From TrEMBL:
Residues 55-261 form the ABC transmembrane type-1 domain. The chain crosses the membrane at residues 7-31, 51-74, 86-104, 142-166, 196-214, 245-266. This is ABC transporter permease. It comes from Oscillibacter valericigenes. Keywords: Cell membrane, Membrane, Transmembrane, Transmembrane helix, Transport. The keyword Transmembrane applies. It is found in: Cell membrane. Gene3D superfamilies: MetI-like. InterPro entries: MetI-like, MetI-like_sf.
């Protein structure tokens, strides 16, 4: 009982800060939007193919960015969790270094690389692989590339902690029983690392859904995602009601995805040691 009181007291300052600076303002804006326009803005969103296409584009880009981040980040995280080489320290620095650079700067860097006269096109032209520059900038692919570069460190850091907690002796035991490296990974390592996979995917997906700078700079003015539409509704159309509706729909989609993930994986994570009783 005493430990529970201590935990509540420790969580109280952060909880109050979230209540006054996040939850209450959001509730106030929602009530004001419903009072002024009712549900008209929400109804327009779900009945207009233009807005529905933007929602689907946002979800698609976020899912692809999350999947590729997992595919690229898992081997890196596994190597970092198991290696005793000094290279591990260099890899940690490389992974943490992007956090010191603004997303704006990183997006401009990709603009230099992916532009019509950018480094990538110049390299492909020099190697004779293409006869004319590819249109890479201001496309969905450019946005996905920028998202992956921006968010893959979060995936790797989420996985490293879980993989490091897996006792290597468990793998050695599987080897001693005749399991191949692939079988050991498939039946031992991967299931035990599921909590890290889930937390990393949820984190990357959420940040992709709410990203603004990368889609705006790498996607151009014609490429729209939910976050860029919020800014456009406010700064261009001066429609605060529509901007509020888009914001709350985006929040609802993210929360729905997280609830589904928790419900689907909750029992499995408890069995693997990642549940609330772990």
């Amino acid at each position: 009982m005493e430990r529970r009181k201590q935990a509540i007291l420790l969580a109280l300052p952060a909880s109050l800060a979230l209540l006054f600076f996040f939850i209450l303002p959001m509730v106030y804006i929602l009530i004001r939007t419903l009072t002024e326009n009712g549900t008209a803005d929400f109804t327009e969103f779900f009945t207009d193919p233009f807005y529905l296409d933007i929602l689907w584009t946002t979800i698609r880009v976020s899912l692809v960015s999350t999947a590729v981040s997992l595919l690229l980040g898992y081997p890196t995280a596994y190597y970092m969790a198991r290696t005793t080489s000094r290279l591990k320290q260099a890899m940690v620095i490389v992974i943490l270094f992007p956090f010191l650079v603004s997303a704006v700067v990183r997006s401009y860097g990709w603009m230099v690389i992916l532009g019509t006269n950018g480094l990538l096109n110049q390299l492909l032209l020099g190697l004779g692989l293409i006869s004319e520059p590819l249109k890479l900038l201001n496309t969905e692919a450019a946005v996905i590339i920028g998202m992956i570069h921006l968010l893959i460190p979060y995936m790797i850091l989420s996985l490293v902690g879980v993989l490091q907690s897996i006792d290597p002796n468990v793998e050695y035991a599987a080897y001693s029983l005749g399991a191949s490296p692939m079988t050991t990974f498939r039946k031992v390592v991967f299931p035990l690392s599921t909590p890290g996979i889930i937390s990393g995917c949820v984190l990357v997906f959420t940040m992709s859904m709410t990203s603004y700078v990368t889609p705006k700079l790498l996607g151009g003015s014609k490429f729209r995602m939910m976050a860029t539409m919020v800014v456009q509704e406010i700064n261009v159309n001066f429609d605060w009601g529509a901007a509020s509706a888009i914001s709350y729909i985006l929040l609802a989609v993210i929360l729905a995805v997280q609830v589904v993930v928790v419900l689907v994986t909750g029992r499995y994570m408890k069995r693997m040691g990642g549940g609330k009783n772990a």
